[in-house]
Automatic annotation (TrEMBL):
Keywords: Membrane, Transmembrane, Transmembrane helix. Signal peptide: none annotated. The keyword Transmembrane applies. Gene3D superfamilies: PAS domain. The chain crosses the membrane at residues 20-40. This is Sensor protein divL. It comes from Ketogulonicigenium robustum. The keyword Hydrolase does not apply. The lineage of its organism: Bacteria, Pseudomonadati, Pseudomonadota, Alphaproteobacteria, Rhodobacterales. Residues 151-215, 250-317, 381-447 form the PAS domain.
């Protein structure tokens, strides 16, 4: 026996009359057909339900204030129920760009229906005087965007600390996040469109906070169809830091300009970055040449051509030394030289590299210092010559007792090597004198050492023995001069002095 489920063999199980077997077979076939129709109907019902629009959220306003809502409102208005209709319109206008304009043209009574650009949502607005009902429904179709994900993204934008807003093609603000709304003055009533805070198409702007403090913003825009998404980043700290940096650099530049030392600063590419007026005054390099930002090598080549750089014994080796100095970049490896120029000037030149590969070259005119040093040395040499020409053995001791200077007669008298390594002091010399003179005579001759400096009698000779005299004198600064002379030489000298005096 054939049935919709296959052949049914009944005779193998039990023997039925033909009419009863036919009845059972017909019943089974009818049941199978009914089951198939039921399953097909359930599928059709589910398909019709899936293809039918489904409500996402409903909001009811009275005189602009939200009085009731249901559904997934949180996914529509970015994280929180808006306190008034203006904010709800601002949120919804992100998906329905024509909403503000068409809502304004709707009047106090009417119905407005808008489909989203992706045809996945529909917004219906019913207005009856002061009452406004907003219905957001999802439309059937494959690949519909999940409203929960939309809500999460919207909540991120709304809660972002960065100021974000959306403008339509007319430049009106159709949506703004909470950071934008926080910048609005407290007395401003939120309406449509939202108040505009930033200039149109501006890249930077400055706004005053509620406390009156200015805040600086960097603005960027991204076009999205007829709308423009705008982002304002608070760069007040960066602006203040940049202003402080410029002020610091200006202060440094003013200090550089007032220094008598010539300064040339080279950047990490070894090109001239900054110089002060003293550099041109000292080196006679033209300002036009320096403004061309020459390299370090070109800078010294020009100095050499201008005869400001004394010709080294081997210029190539000198350049190699300078190159190795700039290559290692060690903070403590610097080059310091003294340049004696042909015009009589003397420069102290210092090249100091830094870890970031920059370099500072300093030029200091030390000609006055050199002249003073040379004059002082000449004076010292003259005094040494005068003291050395005296037959009197002279030794000068500092306030500390150390020997400052002694002439050749002193070294010869006491058989001391002129270039002796061992330091001499008043104490060691007293020991030496005691070996030749009596303690009583030496003590009487040097009694002035125990007296205040102002009470000492200068240039008084005291006899130490029949052939030697000593004198003790204060010469200022706590220094003491002690001289020894031979009485025999004095006797030989006095007649000559008398004759010269008489003559």
């Amino acid at each position: 026996m054939e049935s919709p489920f296959g052949t049914i063999e009944l005779s193998g199980f039990l023997s039925l009359p033909p009419w009863l077997a036919t009845t059972i077979s017909a019943t089974i076939a009818a049941s199978a057909t009914a089951g198939m129709l039921w399953v097909w109907g359930r599928k059709r019902s589910a398909q019709r339900k899936a293809n039918a629009p489904h409500s996402i959220a409903t909001l009811i306003f009275e005189d602009g204030v939200l009085i009731d809502s249901k559904g997934d409102v949180d996914a529509v208005v970015a994280g929180a129920l808006p306190p008034n209709k203006a904010q709800a319109v601002a949120h919804l206008s992100l998906r329905f760009a024509d909403l503000p304009r068409k809502l304004a043209a709707l009047g106090h009574y009417g119905v407005l229906s808008l489909d989203a650009p992706d045809a996945q949502q529909r917004l219906t607005v019913l207005r009856r005087g002061g009452l406004t009902r907003v219905d957001l429904v999802g439309l059937p179709g494959e690949g519909a965007l999940p409203t929960r994900d939309d809500g999460i993204l919207g909540a991120l934008a709304a809660a972002s600390p960065q100021v974000i807003w959306v403008e339509d093609d007319q430049g009106c603000v159709v949506w703004a996040n909470q950071s934008y709304l926080d910048l609005l003055p407290p007395q401003v009533n939120l309406g449509w469109p939202l108040p505009s805070l930033f200039p149109a198409k501006a890249n930077t702007a400055s706004l005053a906070t509620h406390e009156g403090k200015p805040r600086d913003y960097h603005i960027s825009q991204i076009s999205r169809g007829a709308q423009t998404m705008c982002f304002a980043l608070d760069v007040t700290a960066q602006t203040a830091a940049e202003a402080a940096r410029k002020q610091f650099l200006n202060g440094i530049a003013q200090i550089y300009a007032g220094l008598p030392m010539g300064i040339a600063l080279f950047d990490r590419q070894r090109r001239l970055m900054q110089f002060n007026p003293a550099l041109t005054d000292l080196t006679d390099l033209s300002t036009s040449f320096l403004l061309q930002r020459p390299s370090l090598a070109g800078f010294f080549d020009r100095l050499r051509a201008s005869h400001v750089l004394p010709e080294p014994r081997n210029y190539l080796d000198w350049r190699a030394k300078l190159t190795s100095l700039e290559a290692d970049g060690v903070l403590h490896s610097s080059l310091s030289e003294t340049w004696h120029l042909g015009d009589g000037r003397t420069f102290r030149v210092t090249a100091q590299p830094y870890p970031d590969n920059a370099m500072a070259v300093l030029f200091e005119d030390i000609s006055p210092e050199i002249r003073v040093t040379r004059a002082f040395r000449a004076e010292i040499d003259t005094l040494h010559g005068v003291i050395g020409a005296l037959e009197e053995a002279i030794a000068v001791f500092a306030h500390s007792g150390n020997l400052v200077v002694a002439n050749a007669a002193y070294y010869q008298m006491w058989s001391l090597p002129p270039d002796g390594v061992a330091p001499l002091s008043l104490e060691t010399e007293f020991d030496r004198w005691h070996k030749q003179f009596s303690a009583s005579a030496l003590g009487a001759a040097t009694a002035g050492l125990r007296q205040p400096e102002n009470d000492r009698t200068p240039h008084v000779w005291s006899r130490l023995d029949p052939s030697t005299e000593l004198r003790l004198s204060s010469i200022g600064g706590g220094r003491i001069m002690i001289g020894f002379r031979s009485l025999e030489a004095r006797r030989l000298l006095e007649p000559e002095m008398t004759v010269r005096h008489i003559a």
